[in-house]
Every structure is written in C-alpha cells, then in structure tokens.
Amino acid sequence: MQGRRADQVERMERRTTGETAAPPARGAAVPFVADSPLDVERRRGVRRMKAFATGLLLGVALVYVLATWARSSGIGGWPGYVAAAAEAGMVGALADWFAVTALFRRPMGLPIPHTAIIPTKKDQLGASLGEFVGENFLSGDVVRMRLRAVGIGSRLGTWLAEPEHADRVTAELATALRGALTVLRDSDVQAVVGEAITRRADSQEIAPGLGKLLERVVADGGHRRAVDLVCLRAHDWLVEHNDSVMQAVTGGAPGWTPRFVDRKVGERVYRELLRFVTEMRDMPDHPARGALDRFLTDFAGTCSPTPTPGCGWSG
C-alpha cells in the first residue's frame, strides 16, 4: 500500500512540474509516505464502529447469561423473555457479520461453504456485469434512444430552417465542391492521404489528449450522471433478477450442505448487495463514489504525462 501511495505522489509531482522522473531501481527502498489526515480519520472511524458493534455483542451476551441464570434461579417467567431476546440479538449479529465477511474472504480462514464469494466468483460476476452493461448501455436500442433524446436532427433542422443559415451552408458547400472538382486528381488524393493523414495518424499520441479530457470531465463532475445511471440500472436489475443472484451464490455449494442453509446465505448476500447498491444510488457522498472519483483522477493523470500501453498508442 505504501508503494502504491508513493507512486501516486510521484505522479502528482510530475503533473505539477512537467518533469519525467526515472523509475526507481529494482530493490531500492521506497520512501515512507505518511497517511493523510483524512485517511487517519477514516481508519479511526472504522475502529470506533467495530469497537461499538463488538461492545454491543458482548453486552447482549452478558444479558443472555444473566437472564439465563435468573430463570434457573426461579425468579419468575420474565427472564425467559429477556434471554430469548438476547439470544436473537446474538444470532442476528453473528449472521450479519458472517454474511458481510463471506462476500470478500473466508471468516477466520476456515474453508466454510459460501464464503469468499467475490474472489471465487469474480469471473462469473465479471461476465454477468459485462452482459448487463452491454444490454443496458451499449445495445443498439439504448444508443438510438439516447440519440433521439438529444435531438441532434431536430436541432440541426431548426437551425437550417432559417433562410440565412441555409443560404450560408449552401454557398459554402457549393464553393468547396467546385474547387475540389476543379483541382483534385487521383494522384493528388493519394498523396494527401498517404503523407498528411496516414503518417500523422500513426505518430499521433492519443493518451495525453484523452487524459486531459478525462481530467476536465472529472473536475466538472460530468461523470456523476453516468454513475447515477449505472447505480439506478444496477438496483433495478437486482430487484428484477433475484433468482439469478441466488443461483450465482448457491450454484457452487457442495451437495452435502442443506438446501435451507444455501437459501439463507443466498438471501443474506442478496440483501447486502441490494443495500450496497441502494446506498450508493441514494448517497452522493458514498465512499464508493469517492473511490471512483480518485481512480478516474489517477487514471487521467497516468495517461496525461506519460502514455502507457493501457492508455494510448503510437505508431
């Protein structure tokens, strides 16, 4: 993590000064970079939340022990209700912890079924996400609908409907066509295409321009509407395809696990995914949105000063 942070600081310095620093030698020590105050505060907040949740769990466990002891001592019937409520709280807390942890790793390193879902199912989830993006954003119907919503043809038609604009366009096109038909020959066209267009296109670096454009889009917040649309469509897809998510979660379960356990784990994972997507959709300051902003900013900075094979190409 320190190495990645040092690389980011170095890229920011190169963007500011316009200099290109030599890459560090293999085996060289990476200088220590202190965490920012924001990172320190976030870690402190995470520790506070974990301590608070653990304290609640221990408190409920203590209530359960005391209520069980009171019931066995013959005080009355009410300790039984308190013990049942405390037991339900402990079971719910452990189930929530297991469901959230099982998404990303194996709890306590144990090979429990239905755990480490994202690392083990990343290929299947990636294929499903690619299919979702292709069907909902890159299909012909969606692109045509967006172009119709922009109304390029109607705007151009309205502009050309004015006589002065139509006369101007007609005069310019007539002049250009007349000059082209007069002076152009096949050999001239071949020379222009071969010398002026082909060679320049082969030597043109795409990454710096794309990086600057992406930096401007991120700085102006133009990407947030796209993120809002992705979150909205992802939420709708999860709501409509509950069975698909359940099948993806429970499909790799071993045959000896009970079906009701598979179903319970699948339902818990589905609810957590739906909650995450809903929060990201409804909260403009969601941490995942901030992480996406930082990723796009770093990617644009990487492309701008020193193009890489992943950002652009040159002849």
Automatic annotation (TrEMBL):
Species classification: Bacteria, Bacillati, Actinomycetota, Actinomycetes, Kitasatosporales
Source organism per entry reads: Streptomyces violaceusniger
User: Does the keyword NAD belong to this entry?
Assistant: no
* UniProt keyword Transmembrane helix, yes or no: yes
Q: Which Pfam families match?
A: DUF445 (PF04286)
Q: Which InterPro entries match?
A: DUF445
Q: Where is this region: Disordered?
A: 1-26
Sorted alphabetically, the keyword list is:
Membrane, Transmembrane, Transmembrane helix
> What Gene Ontology cellular-component terms does the record carry?
plasma membrane
- Residue stretches of biased makeup (Basic and acidic residues): 1-17
**What sections of the protein cross the membrane?**
51-70
Q: What is this protein called?
A: DUF445 domain-containing protein
